[in-house]
Specification:
With about 375 residues, the protein is an alpha/beta fold. The protein folds into two domains: about 5-40 and about 280-375, Aspartate Aminotransferase, domain 1; about 50-275, Aspartate Aminotransferase, domain 2. It contains twelve helices and 13 strands. It has helices at about 15-25, 65-75, 90-100, 120-125, 145-150, 175-185, 225, 245-260, 265-275, 280-300, 320-330, 360-375; strands spanning about 30, 85-90, 110-115, 130-135, 140-145, 155-160, 190, 215-220, 235-240, 310-315, 335, 335-340, 350-355. Strands 2-9-8-7-6-3-4-5 form an eight-stranded mixed beta sheet. Strands 10-13-12 form a three-stranded antiparallel beta sheet, with helices on one face. The chain has a two-stranded parallel ribbon with strand order 1-11. Strand 6 (about 155-160), helix 6 (about 175-185) and strand 7 (about 190) form a beta-alpha-beta unit.
């Protein structure tokens, strides 16, 4: 009766079952996985912008209201044309539009490994396949163009990069070289930049949101991370590349977007004020992440280099499997994310959120160290 697109094994894994059992027993867990800025005490946005009376008038625009697209254009500091900006309800919806635009059933796109576990679900809903290309670590995480190129097949239609990546925190350092590679193979480049504002080492890395380039490109971001407002559901895509390809893609995307008209008018009108006032939140989030990074080092823990974002990757002693470490940490009432959640090639890893409130973060690190000293 039901579509094969939903034929996934949705049973929780052993770790998820163990976490649920601990919570069902009422055991307090020190949660080092907090990724919701609205629960981390960092967001100071107001709801007043949602009362704009213009939102009472239904004025559908497939690409989004011009005022909202102008606000997004102003977010970039190099003059993005609002006509190149498509608004969606989220970056997830933007991915869905782009897969419909670029892929037929059975086609594929390339996505990084390790990375956030989203792409396989989005691809499955469009009857599209995912092929993963590796990120390599050497005093930082790096995309190796040769390794990526080896993953390209006749069915490949696009390359996805996440800059900075989640959870590794690495920027795309050579976007021009990757764009040239995509152009040679007639591939589109999709760059997810939702964490771009949260640089922890220096200035943000290069953006791919430029009008001209050798390949058709789509740069994604949204209010979820940029303003700490995931519940407001506004994402955007900036189109770039050769003019003829952009024109063709724009026409086809308009057909898709006009079919759904998913973005709320009140949120679009509010976007101008929220984007204009984002800096207080951005700086508070960066300060929190930097302080928690310092705390990791003070506790004698050595996270992998993280250029941006709000996650840290910790290698645990190889005396036990990752699943055994997760169970031991839960026994000590500490909740972290395992590396297998992000498709790390090796184990054991623990991923912790750097926006966790500091007192809880320090308490969790003390428990984590005590567990390592006891178990290792």
């Amino acid at each position: 009766m039901f579509s094969h697109r939903l034929a996934w094994d949705t049973a929780p894994n052993a770790y998820s079952r163990t976490v649920a059992e601990h919570r069902a027993l009422g055991r307090p867990l020190i949660d080092l996985t907090e990724s919701n800025p609205t629960r981390a005490g960092l967001v100071d946005a107001k709801l007043d912008p949602l009362t704009d009376t213009r939102a009472l008038q239904y004025d559908p625009e497939a690409w989004g209201l011009h005022a909202a697209r102008e606000a997004v254009a102003a977010y970039y500091d190099h003059g993005v044309d609002p006509s190149r900006i498509l608004l969606t309800a989220s970056t997830s919806e933007a991915y869905s539009y782009l897969l419909q635009l670029l892929c037929d059933p059975g086609d594929e796109f390339l996505a990084p490994r390790p990375s956030y576990p989203l792409f396989e679900f989005l691809a499955g809903l469009q009857n599209v396949a995912v092929r993963q290309y590796p990120l390599h670590y050497h005093e930082g995480w790096w995309l190796d163009l040769a390794s990526l190129e080896e993953c390209i097949t006749p069915r490949t239609r696009a390359v996805i990069v996440v800059s900075p990546n989640n959870p590794t925190g690495n920027y795309l350092h050579h976007p021009g070289a990757l764009a040239e590679l995509c152009a040679r193979h007639s591939l589109a480049l999709i760059c997810d930049e939702v964490f771009r504002d949260f640089a922890l080492e220096s200035a943000p890395g290069s953006t791919t949101a430029y009008p001209d380039g050798p390949c058709l490109s789509f740069t994604l971001s949204g209010l979820s991370k940029v303003c700490g407002l995931p519940q407001m559901k506004l994402g955007w895509t900036v189109l770039g590349g050769p003019r003829d390809l952009v024109a063709d893609a724009s026409h086809r995307l308009e057909l898709i977007a006009d079919t759904y008209l998913s973005v709320s008018a009140p949120v679009q009108y509010a976007a101008t004020q929220w984007l204009g006032g984002r800096h207080t939140y951005t700086e508070a989030t960066r300060a929190r992440s930097l302080a928690n990074l310092d705390s990791l080092r003070r506790h004698g823990l050595a996270p992998l280099r993280v250029e941006a974002g709000w996650y840290a990757c910790l290698r645990l002693p190889a005396t036990h499997s990752e699943e055994q470490w997760m169970t031991s940490l839960l026994d000590d009432e500490v909740l972290v994310q395992p590396g297998f959640f992000y498709d790390f090639e090796s184990e054991p890893w623990a991923i912790v959120s750097l926006i966790t409130p500091p007192a809880r973060f320090d308490q969790g690190l003390e428990r984590l160290l005590a567990c390592i000293n006891r178990v290792a």
